Amino acid sequence: TQGRENPDIVELEKPVAALTQNDGSKIEGDAATGLYEQKSQKLNLAGDVHLKHSNGFTLSTEELRIDLATQKAYSGRDVRVEGPEGTIDATGLEGDTESGRMIFTG
User: What pLDDT, on a 0 to 100 scale, did the predictor assign at position 19?
Assistant: First the structure.
């Protein structure tokens, strides 16, 4: 729903998304809530955020901020990534979906 005080912000309840990247790989995601800022193309997801990549990796956190214009993602909360070769636990991340690079903090 769009906020009455700021119509640029769309409040999301239980958002679900699917994205196909340039290389053909797919990312699916969901969260408890979200806010989408239309003008700046920023998506803030909160509460039980999960992303699943078609290569077998899953990411779980309580908060994820995604800049759709720059294809970058950030989290300052605990992050867990599980995949075919193991698990990474960190206190945050910076990611670039275009390059596929993630930097884990903590």
Answer: 84
- The residues, any chain, with a CB within 8 Å of residue 68's CB and separated by 6 or more, are 41, 42, 43
Report the alpha-carbon distance of residue 58 to residue 41 in Å, rounded.
Answer: 24
- Give strand ranges (E) for the chain: 9-13, 16-20, 26-30, 33-37, 42-53, 58-67, 72-75, 79-83, 86-90, 92-96, 101-105
How do residues 73-105 score in pLDDT, each as one tens digit? 999 999 999 999 999 999 999 998 778 788 999
What are the CA-CA distances from residue 68 to residues 56, 74, 96 (Å)? Answer: 23, 12, 10
Overall pTM surpassing 0.90 (yes/no): no
Q: How far is CA 8 from the centre of its chain?
A: 20
